[in-house]
Amino acid sequence: MIFITGPLYSGKREYARLLLGCTREELAQRAVWDVQELAAGCGDLAALAQQLARNEVVIATEVGGGVVPVDKNERAAREAAGRLGCLLAQRADAVVRVFCGIPVYLKGAPNT
């Protein structure tokens, strides 16, 4: 599994599409994205990470930067998203951070 992360609107899906050499429609069959949203309220992040890791590519938007939310639930969701990202990075064969469309390999190199 390849784990791709980066800021909102940084080109993560486009990079995944180019990496896999597929169309946008095919990407929907081979990848899952916005997984950080699944972390909020999840009782078992390890099980969620295990389930998500079955995909060829998993894409998450970084949510930990900036001002810490005042709302308790928003802080908990942000913390859960970060923990999920760590669990996915541990399971990944390759971890890529995309910023402004530029990939930086943090772990391994995609072999697709």
Automatic annotation (TrEMBL):
Gene Ontology molecular function: any one: adenosylcobinamide kinase activity
Keywords carried by this UniProt record: Kinase, Transferase
Kinase as UniProt keyword: yes
Gene Ontology BP annotations: cobalamin biosynthetic process
Gene3D superfamilies: P-loop containing nucleotide triphosphate hydrolases
One Pfam family it belongs to: CobU
Name listed for the protein in its UniProt record: Cobinamide kinase
Organism lineage string: Bacteria, Bacillati, Bacillota, Clostridia, Eubacteriales
